[in-house]
Structures are given as C-alpha cells and as structure tokens.
Design a protein that fits this description.
Length: about 240
C-alpha cells in the first residue's frame, strides 16, 4: 500500500455479518477492496452479504485465540484490519456470571489485541489497524455496564501503545468509538432510545454507514498521520 494513495486492496473485518461490521464490509467492497469478514452465529446474513458484495465470509469466533491468530497469519499481507466484533453484556455486577464477563473481555479486549498483533506481522508499510470501541469508554452514564465500558476503555491504551510499536512502518492504529448506533445490539426504536438520546447533542441514533465512513477515512491517505487516537462518532454523547 503506497502512502500517497493508500488504496486498500486486502481488508479483514472481524465480526462483519451484521450491523456496523456489515456496513464496513459494504464500504470497502464498494471501493473495490478484496474483503474477508468473520462471523459466528449469523451464517445466513454472512452468506447473503458475501454474495451481495463479492466478499468472503469466514466462520471464526474471535474468542478462540488459537484459531484467530492462525487464521489471520494464514491470510498473509492484510492492508487494513478492522476489529469490530464485540459483545455487550449488561446486568447487576453482583449477579452477572463471571463466565459471561470473561467472554466479553475475551472478545472485546483480548481478540482485538491478538488480531492487531497477528495482522501486523505481515502487514505492508502504511497499513491500517482500526479497533471499534465505544463512546462508553469516555462516558457511561448508567449502571450495569461496567465490564463493557472497561473493555472499550482498554482499547484506548491499546491503540496508543501499538501505534508506537508499528509507527516506524507507517502503520496507524486507532480506535473508532461509536455512540448509540442503529443495529441489532441497539435498535433505534428500542425502549431505551429516549434515555440514550437525552445524553446526545444530536438526538438520534448514529447510522452504521456513518461509523463505516470514519473507518474508511482512517484507511485513506488523508489519515496517514492519525495514529494512537480515539475518534468518536456519537452525536455528542460524550461531549
Ligand atoms: N450499536 C451500538 O450502539 C454500538 C455503540 C458503540 C459501540 N459499538 C460497538 O460496535 C461493534 C459492532 O456493534 P454492532 O452494534 O454492529 O453489534 P451487533 O449488531 O450485535 O453485531 C455484532 C457483530 O459482531 C459479530 N460478533 C459478535 N461476537 C463475535 C465473535 N465472538 N467472533 C466474531 N464475530 C463476532 C456478530 O457476528 P454473528 O452475528 O455472526 O455472531 C455481528 O456480525 C461492537 O464492538 C460494539 O461494541 C456498538
């Protein structure tokens, strides 16, 4: 990938079968990139998206560290890695199962780290690593979501450190932090929409393609010098 054009030819999106990940797959595929994306449960959506966009769907649970690392390394030189796969578990911390919390940390934190490092091994100069975090890393104005918020805050430190580790090769590492975004995880017509909009300057859900647009910009030559940053797309939720 040349630093003047940064036209990504090979893109890997972890968790691309639905929601924000699917919008990122569509965005890069529309730019003519060869896109591979992973999924776990949504086989039908994954196959449909792959057929629509000419991308390739791989069944891979990000929580399976061995499979994650070997799959990424086997893909060779990836220009852009987007670690989007994420899970939300809410509930009273005194009651929620520690197994569920460990799984959340595995998918949201551990997999993001191992994927970034595995992809960096064969990544060409000026490659891109984008993690999908959350505005809840900066602001969590409700209870029962501490593990989720912690998992997304961890990504802020992760991108700062990895940006320094890979900066010599022109590889940038950033986290994109969506606010309430209209997906299965957080539908725009859900029962908590008014509560969430009450924290926003622009009182509507973010659209998945608005998050994908930020990811695409980070992958472009215009963002060559943006690294170690948290870029928030949240309608002012954390403002
Ligand atoms: N929606 C929001 O309001 C919002 C706000 C801030 C941040 N985010 C973050 O944005 C990212 C995407 O969220 P979303 O709203 O699009 O969620 P979503 O609608 O629940 O979709 C999640 C996607 O991730 C995949 N995925 C989940 N666990 C996985 C695993 N263990 N391995 C591989 N893929 C996995 C799912 O695949 P399968 O269905 O195939 O299992 C699906 O494609 C997450 O990191 C989330 O935390 C979302």
């Amino acid at each position: 990938m040349s630093s003047s054009t940064n036209k990504p030819s090979k893109v890997l999106v972890l968790g691309g079968s639905r929601g924000i990940g699917a919008a990122i797959v569509r965005r890069f595929a529309a730019q003519g990139a060869h896109v591979t994306f992973t999924y776990v449960n949504s086989r039908e959506s994954a196959e449909k998206l792959a057929a629509q966009t000419g991308s390739k769907a791989l069944h891979l649970d990000s929580a399976d560290r061995t499979a994650l690392i070997s799959t990424i390394e086997s893909l060779g030189a990836i220009d852009v890695l987007v670690a989007n796969a994420g899970v939300l578990r809410t509930g009273n911390p005194l009651e929620i199962s520690p197994v569920e919390i460990d799984y959340l940390f595995q998918v949201n934190i551990n997999a993001s780290y191992h994927a970034a490092v595995s992809a960096a091994k064969n990544m060409p100069d000026n490659g891109r690593i984008v993690l999908i975090g959350s505005t809840n890393a900066d602001r969590i104005p409700m209870g029962n979501a501490s593990a989720y918020a912690a998992s997304k805050s961890a990504l802020q430190g992760m991108v700062k450190g990895l940006a320094r580790d890979f900066g010599e090769r022109g590889i940038t590492v950033n986290v994109v932090q969506p606010g309430p975004t209209d997906t299965d995880m957080n539908p725009a017509n859900g029962p908590r929409k008014d509560f969430m909009h009450s924290f926003m300057a622009i009182k509507r859900h973010v659209k998945d393609e608005e998050v994908a647009a930020m990811v695409a910009w980070l992958a472009s030559a215009e963002a060559n010098m943006v690294t170690g940053a948290a870029l928030t797309v949240d309608g002012g939720f954390a403002a």
